[in-house]
Each structure stands twice: as C-alpha cells, then as structure tokens.
Design a protein that fits this description.
It is a single chain. The chain is α/β, with parallel strands linked by helices. Strands 7-8-9-6-10-11-4-13-12 form a 9-stranded mixed sheet, with helices on both faces. Helix 8 packs across helix 10. The longest helix is centred in the middle third of the chain and has 20 residues. The protein is elongated. The N and C termini lie far apart (77 Å).
C-alpha cells in the first residue's frame, strides 16, 4: 500500500505540531506526558524536512542513514514522526524493523503508547490480538507493523510508504555482511521504492552494513550543493553536541570557574566548532563529556561519535588509543604530502604490495621485521616492516600472501637495500622455514638472535629470530601501544594502521579475556610494527638480546 491521498487530519499543521497536540509518552514511573521535542530532536526534525525536500527535488524517495549517540531519544522521535503519517494519511503502510524479534516487539509496545489517546480523536484503531505487532487505522486504510531482520528476505513482496530500520549496525549479530546487503538492497529498498527508508544506528566499527552504506552516501552539506550519492543515500551524523541532555546541570560556581579555566585546546575547539558560547553551558558540557570519557574510555568515541573519522575507529574494547590512531594517520598523510612536494614521492613496487617511503641514508641503521605466512590463497598474508633505528619512522613495508621462502627473499632484499639491516623474522609456524631459507640458502648474516636457557642444565644458548611467547608477546604489545599513544613511532602503511585499529578485546577468551585481531581482520601489522619497535628500544641495551 502507498499513500494516495492525505486525510488532512493534521489540518495544515506540521507533523511536529500534530505530535505535540496528540501524542503522549508514558515514563518509567507510568506518568503520562506530552510528546514535545527537546533541543536535539528539533535539530533532527529540521534535518529530516530538508532531506525530504532534497529527495523530492531529485524525484526519488528518501534514502537516509543516520548515525546517532546512544540513549538520547532519537529513535523515538523518528519513529513517532513516521507513524504519525499512518494516523493522519490515507492508505499508508509503515513498518519498523529491528535486529531481533524481542527488540522489535519491545519497541513496538512503546509505539502503542503513542496512540493510547488517539482512538477518539482520529480514525478507529484495530490491534492484532495474535502478535501484538500490528495497528490498522480502519477508517484510513493505513497500517503500522513491525518485523525483525532475521533473514535477507525481510519485507520482500510488500509495499511501504515509510520504513524505519533501527540498530542498522547490529544486523550482523544475526546476518553476515553479504546477507545484510541482500536484506537492505534486495528486499527492504525494493519494498519502499515509492516510499521512504530511514536507517538508524550507533557506529560499531567499519566492517558492517552501516559503514558499507555510509561510505557511498553523501552528507547533507553535499546534498545541498547538488552532489548525488552513489547509492541514493543521504547521511546524517547526530552528536551529543546537538542534544541539550548531554550536559551536567547543577554545578556550583566554584566548579564552573574551575572547569572554565581548565579547558584543553581540543575541548575549546569542539565548543567553538559547535557554536556553544555561553560560559555556563560550556562548562556543563565539558563536565559531562569528561565524565563519559572517564566511564567509557575508548568506547566513548563509538557510543558518542563526534565526527566522521573517530566514529569508525571504535568497535569493542580497543587495545590501541583510537584518537592516537587518528592522529597517526593524519601525520602519515602529512609526511606523504611533504615527500611529494620535495620531489620524493612514496613509491610502490610488486603490484603495490611493496611500499617504499624513504630511501636509506648512509648515517642510519635499520631493522627488518618479518611475519611470514603459509602462502595459502585466502589465508593470512605475510607482513614485512622496515624501521629506521635513528628516527623511528617506517621506511618501507610489504604485505601479501607469499610462500615462506619468498618472504625470506623479499626480506633479505630489503635488508641489503637498507644498509645491511638487522633482520628479525618471527619464527613460530612458517617463520622457521623463512628463517632457515634466509640464513642457509640466501646466506644473510646479520640476523637478530636472543639468549635462551637449556631446559636441562640451564646453560645459556642463542636462538635466531623472534620467538613469540607468553613473556615476549605482552612486552611487544605494550611497547608499541605506548609508542603509538605518544606518537614516537611513525607508521606510514595504511594496512598497519588498519590492523592496529582492529586489535581489540575478545571477552570469550577466559574470564579476563584477551586482545587479538577482530573477526575477519589480521594482526600482522601489530606484530611487525611491535616487534621492530621492541628491538629498536631494547636490542642494543638488553643483555639477553644480541645484534649479530
């Protein structure tokens, strides 16, 4: 069903005005109150009206995806706006979709409270007794129902004038990415080809369907300038700065004065960017923000995204600081631009798998760290990282699926190119074959070694290559973590930054959990950057580590 004529029950009033006159909310204390917009919801209403106007000028239905902070009333606001149309227009079908059946039904029960006081004011309402997931406005021929994203075929074969898909980023808790794409583009969008689609989500990393849609959409500013999106979507980013709820009220004068005098450059920049001039409000918002960061840690930039860069950095409990990763990427981009301006652009070889960022200099020494792979197509790739001993900058890197002996050949070639660099292959699994090929066949002599003790007798002996153990792994990880946070290591490879960003806590690994690459991601970048940095920091000082 599609909307064919307006019942004009709003009598010329806007949806927002009609909602404030007719819709009521029931609080947790079972108190009823009118449905009024707060400050942030008013911003959302204005943006939605603008998106609708832009889509109409393009002669296409609304396709909108909205990133939002948690617990701020955005979902209720958008849902109420959509379902108001069903209560005031003829022959309009609306649907609410959530990730699971329980969430869909729980939210729909909230929607029912919107209409508790409507039956005498608008057309009669008939509720489905079987599922409690349907509302029919019998006098209008309009309806509201709910569903959950359990299969790629959700909504197929139906027609909706409005459809809201909540928790878009969480669909992959129940569906794969490919199934999520089929759900959105193969089932849901065709079902609203004459109506509007609204996708609502809190960011959860850059591997899910929400990011897939977001990256091909255009911002509202771009849409205003007439830029057409690749996938038909306009994107909106709602932040806590748009919400009047995200501030600590009731602070004393002394607290306000202390906060006003302790603002960092970052905090001042954010306040100015969002046009917050009142001194009391500035202090209240920063107090709230500091409390949230103290409570959530790195998850703050996921739960309360502040810009389009940091919102994709956080997904779960990250090992590396999300803001440090963002700053490191920006610094790498600045180094790339400076190299081009100086006539020494970054160079790529071996079909892009080998990157050369800086040529060797006579007065520098280098470390080549190798994490070999089995060379199986579709398996984990090998990583090679070349680090300057003097500057701490990554000067070259390789990533690709190659046999262990080929990884040794590439590593040795780089080591010879960079002033007979120290070569440190990780020797677990295929790394042992890589080491042997480099030492025995290629006869490369300057190989990292560490001191071991014989299991019987306890006599010291030397072992070549880097051996990852319960002792060396935490030391490697903590060393590179600190170096990234303080900006000491200068990483240029985007794939290394990607691996650092995807390294997070897996709570399923025992009671205390453990840090590892997220599902579908890799950890070669963490290992090679961390190993090279550890050797740089400790190789010449630790008596149990030798430079050969």
């Amino acid at each position: 069903m599609t909307a064919v004529a307006s019942a004009d029950l709003r009598q010329g009033r806007s949806i927002t005005q009609w909602q404030q006159d007719h819709l009521w909310l029931r609080t947790d204390a079972q108190e009823e109150m009118p449905f009024f917009d707060n400050e942030g919801q008013s911003v959302l209403s204005k943006w939605i009206d603008e998106v609708i106007e832009i889509s109409a000028s393009w002669h296409q239905p609304v396709r909108c995806v909205l990133a939002k902070p948690r617990r701020d009333g955005w979902t209720s606001k958008l849902a109420a706006r959509i379902f108001t149309r069903a209560a005031t227009e003829r022959n309009l079908a609306c649907r609410y979709v959530n990730t699971t059946e329980r969430d869909a039904l729980d939210t729909f029960r909230v929607f029912l409270t919107f209409f508790d006081k409507l039956e005498k004011r608008v057309q009669p309402v008939r509720r489905s007794k079987e599922s409690m997931r349907d509302l029919d406005f019998t006098g209008l021929g309009s309806r509201i129902d709910t569903a959950y994203a359990s299969t790629p075929g959700t909504c197929r074969g139906l027609g909706y004038g409005e459809l809201l898909l909540d928790e878009l980023a969480k669909i992959q808790d129940v569906l794969s990415l490919e199934d999520a794409k089929r759900l959105i583009f193969g089932a849901i969008l065709p079902s609203v080809r004459f109506g509007n689609f609204w996708g609502l989500f809190t960011p959860d990393g850059d591997t899910d369907i929400a990011y897939h849609i977001w990256k091909d959409a255009v911002s509202l500013d771009e849409a205003r300038r007439g830029v057409r999106p690749k996938n038909g979507f306009i994107r909106l980013l709602l932040t806590h700065w748009q919400s009047d709820q995200c501030r600590t009220r009731g602070l004393g004068d002394d607290e306000l004065l202390e906060l006003a005098s302790s603002l960092s450059d970052e905090e001042t920049g954010l306040l100015d960017k969002h046009g917050i001039r009142d001194p009391e409000e500035r202090a209240q918002r920063i107090h709230w923000r500091r409390q949230q960061i103290g409570s959530l840690g790195e998850l703050f930039w996921q739960e309360f995204a502040e810009d389009e860069d940091t919102m994709w950095l956080s997904a779960g409990d990250l090992f590396f600081d999300a803001r440090a990763i963002k700053a490191g990427r920006e610094a790498a981009e600045a180094r790339r631009a400076a190299a081009e301006e100086a006539g020494k652009p970054w160079r790529y070889e071996m079909n892009g798998r080998l990157a050369v960022y800086c040529e060797p200099t006579d007065d520098d020494d280098y470390i080549v760290f190798t994490d070999a792979c089995r060379g199986v197509r579709g398996g984990d790739p090998a990583g090679i990282f070349v680090l300057s001993l003097f500057t701490g900058e990554e000067v070259a890197s390789f990533r690709g699926v190659v046999e262990p002996d080929e990884a040794a050949e590439i590593s040795v070639e780089l080591a010879e190119r960079y002033n007979e660099a120290l070569w440190a292959p990780e020797i677990d699994g295929p790394g042992q074959a890589c080491l042997l090929h480099g030492m025995k066949v290629l006869e490369y002599a300057r190989v990292y070694r560490h001191q071991m003790q014989e299991k019987i007798g306890g006599r010291p002996r030397h072992e070549y290559g880097w051996h990852t153990t319960a002792v060396t792994r935490p030391a490697l990880l903590q060393g590179v973590r600190t170096a990234v946070r303080k900006g000491h290591i200068q990483i240029n490879s985007s794939w290394v930054w990607d691996d650092l960003r995807a390294f997070r806590l897996n709570p399923k690994r025992g009671l205390r959990g453990g840090y590892e690459a997220a599902a579908g991601a890799h950890d070669e970048g963490v290992i090679v950057a961390g190993g090279a940095w550890y050797i740089r920091e400790h190789g010449g000082m630790n008596p149990k580590v030798d430079w050969v």
